[in-house]
Write a structure and sequence with these properties.
About 20% of the residues lie in helices and about 25% in strands. It is of the alpha+beta class. Pfam families: GUB_WAK_bind, WAK_assoc.
């Protein structure tokens, strides 16, 4: 080989392989847990993890799993993979122990989330709430006014400008709840100051201090078969891997604990630099070893070094 061509060939290889290495795996390692929550498909902890359909909305930050929409970021406190639901606890949502004025709560129309079976209590509304309508239809459920009477026993109602044990005609049980055309629970439009959302009564329907407060959301991933991830993901997770994808094509990746990715599972993967551990050193990072492999290939030809394959 002409020695003058060697630098040019190495340059071409570098230009070719550096972009591939930068896009082959997530910049931040994918995690199987975020705080106390187990993370499985379709959720991911960072870019390149889980389903690309969920990535714009879900992320793990400071060991907290967050859902981000156009109205804010909300802490996810529970996930049911069996029921395809999650529970968020907006920081401005009222509970029995803490009541406050709340901004609008909303979901992005393009997101895979929609309201679940939560019960919304609209608080400190302009009375009477029996006249509250949306597009001409009554909003409040008259058969559930006892929930208003129950939560209004909480002393924190004074934080909403209400007296202790206020009249229940300033409260509305909004169930089943729905969002407006902007995808929001618009409290200002309904002339209410705050809201509480009940995810579960915790076997204590008459004790609001024991209720589990949160907004239950449903999610769907059946429409994500375009990414060919659903069928492969179970196999990947069964092998100890974490499901992810490779931008920009969003092709499926099984991210393995051994430090590299596979296209199927972590049982049958193959490390392309495994045979060069002795030459390059096990302390060298995977990306560096993969980057050095083409150079080693060229040098082996140029200097007639036996290629270890």
């Amino acid at each position: 080989m002409d020695s003058h061509l060697l630098p040019f060939i190495i340059f071409l290889i570098a230009v070719t392989f550096i972009p591939l290495l930068s896009s082959a795996a997530p910049a931040t390692p994918c995690q199987s847990n975020c705080g106390s929550l187990q993370i499985k498909y379709p959720f991911g902890t960072s870019y390149g993890c889980g389903s690309p359909r969920f990535e714009p909305y879900i992320a793990c930050k400071s060991n907290q799993l967050l859902l981000t929409t156009h109205t804010g970021s909300y802490l996810i406190t529970a996930i049911s993979y069996k029921d395809s639901t999650l529970t968020i606890t907006p920081s401005a949502m009222s509970t029995c122990n803490s009541m406050q004025q709340s901004p609008n709560l909303g979901l992005d129309w393009a997101s895979p989330f929609q309201l679940g079976p939560s019960i919304f209590l609209l608080l400190s509304c302009t009375p009477p709430t029996s006249s509250l309508t949306i597009k001409g239809s009554p909003v409040c459920d008259p058969s559930s006014t006892h929930l208003c009477a129950t939560i209004y026993t909480c002393p924190a109602v004074v934080n909403l400008g209400l007296p202790l044990f206020p009249p229940t005609n300033t409260c509305c049980v909004y169930s089943p709840a729905n969002f407006n055309s902007k995808g929001e629970l618009d409290l200002r439009e309904m002339k209410c100051k705050g809201y509480a959302s009940i995810a579960s009564f915790q076997d204590s329907p008459t004790d609001p201090s024991k209720w589990m407060y949160g907004v239950t959301l449903k999610y769907t991933n059946g429409g994500f078969d375009d990414y060919y991830m659903n069928n492969k993901c179970n196999t990947c997770e069964d092998s100890g891997g974490i499901c992810g994808y490779s931008p920009p094509t969003n092709s499926f990746l099984c991210i393995c604990n051994s430090g590299f990715n596979a296209t199927t599972d972590c049982y049958n993967n193959y490390n392309p630099v495994q045979d060069y551990e002795d030459l390059i050193g096990t302390s060298t990072s995977l990306s560096t070893r993969m980057f050095l492999f083409p150079f080693y290939f060229i040098l082996s030809i140029y200097y007639s070094i036996p290629l270890l394959i």
